[in-house]
Amino acid sequence: VPYIEYLASLESTLHNSRHIICDCANGIGSRILQNVRNFNKNRNIYTLVNTNTRHFEKLNHFCGSDFVVNNKVLPCKLEVRNHLYASLDGDADRIVFYYLNEQSKFQLLNGDKISALIAYYISKKLDDLTNVAVIHTGYSNQAFIEFIQSLGIKTYCTATGVKHLHKEALKHDISIYFESNGHGTVVFNKDYDELTDLQKYFHPTIGDGIMDMFAIFFIIQDLNISLDFWNSLYTDYPYELFKMEVANKDEFITTENQLHLIKPIKLQKYIDELCKSNVTAFVRPSGTENYLRVYIESTCQEKVKL
What we know:
Elements: H1 3-11, E1 20-23, H2 28-39, E2 46-49, H3 65-71, E3 84-88, E4 95-100, E5 106-109, H4 111-125, E6 132-137, H5 142-150, E7 154-158, H6 162-169, E8 174-178, E9 184-188, H7 196-199, H8 209-223, H9 227-231, E10 239-245, E11 253-254, E12 261-263, H10 265-274, E13 279-285, E14 291-298, H11 301-305
Parallel strand pairs: 1-2, 1-3, 6-7, 6-8
Antiparallel strand pairs: 3-4, 4-5, 8-9, 10-14, 11-12, 13-14
Helix pairs in contact: 1-2
C-alpha cells in the first residue's frame, strides 16, 4: 500500500471529536499531512502550523520538536488550553507532544512520556507482560523508570542513539523505545491479538513521527483519557542537563551504556561520591564537539542545583 494511502487509512479510524494542533517545523511533514488530508476529504482532526517549505531558512526555526523540548514554549500563536499539540522535526522522524493546562502552564510530553503512555496502554491490554520491554537511555528520568517497572514491564538502558535502542529492541517480543527528543517507535517481534489495532500505527523498522502522532491519538481515544491524566502517570524528579567545554573529548571513555566513565577514573570516583547522597549523575563526551554532557538528577531540588 502506498505510504500516503496507508496513513490515510490510519487517520480514518480516528474520531473527528478530537483534534491536534501539529507544528510541522516548516518541513516535509506538512506536505505529507496535507496529502493525507486531501486523500481523506471532509475530515478535520488536525490543524497544521509552520508549513512553509519554500524557504529553507525557516526549517526548525523557532519551531519543531527540539525547539519545543529546549524552550518549553508554544511554537505558534494558537493558544488553546487543554488542547493537544504536537511538534515534528524537519524530516518528521520524531515527535513530541505538549499542552497548556487550566492555568495556561506549558506541559511537555516528551519521549519518556510517550513511552509511558504506550506502556500503560499495553499493560491494560495484556495479562502477561513478561516479554514486553521499555528501552531507554541514561537521560530518562528515574521517576519514569520506576513507573514502567511498577507496571510489571522490564526496562533496559542503552547508549544514546536510536541504533543502540533498536538493537536492544530486537531482543524482546514487544519493545517500546523513544529518546527524550521524541525519536522512536514500538517494535513488535511477535503478534498479539489484543494489540492488532495498535500495531498498525507503528513503523516496523524506523521512527516515523506522523505514524507516532496517529498512534498517540488512537491510544488517547481508546482509553478515553484526559491530557492531565496522561501527564500525571508520573512526575519527573528534578534534574539538570548541561554541557562543559573540554580540551579533548577523546580523553573521556565510558561504559557501553554511557552511565559510567572508564577514563579518567578519578572523575568517576568523584561522581560516585556525589551519588552517595541521593543523587544520580553521569557525564559522557559529545560525539562531535569537545564538550562533556553532564546529567544530574535527585529527588531533592537543592542537590541538583549544587
